[in-house]
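Hi support team,

I submitted a single chain yesterday and got back a structure, but I'm not sure I'm reading the token output correctly. Could someone confirm the output below corresponds to the sequence I sent? I've pasted both exactly as they appear in my results page.

Thanks,
R.
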Amino acid sequence: MNIFRVHFTWKEKEYELKALSLDMTHPYFVSIKDLVLPADNGVLINPADDEIRKSFGDVRQLMLPFQSVSLIEEFTEDPDAKRTVQEPPKGGMVVTDRFTKRS
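Hi R., thanks for writing in. Yes, this is the structure output for that exact sequence:
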């Protein structure tokens, strides 16, 4: 499934949103649907992510004027997703810190 990352300016601030659906058939606007908002992990609060959730959390569809959009990127998978399982290189040794003490 493709994911889009849209960089735009709104109220004199730079924003970056991810979405699953993007429509540019309108002559003046970029339509963004199915927003992928940053996860709220509850422990650490990123002010930028918190502002995005507050501003766009209830939005079903976002229509941005073409002039406000500076960059649209398309990826085959989420580029910001954390990789939890890493494949070891073939013939290499696997070293893990799973059982070490954490302070």
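A quick pointer for reading it: The CA atoms of residues 37 and 56 lie 8 Å apart. Let us know if anything else looks off.

Best,
Support desk
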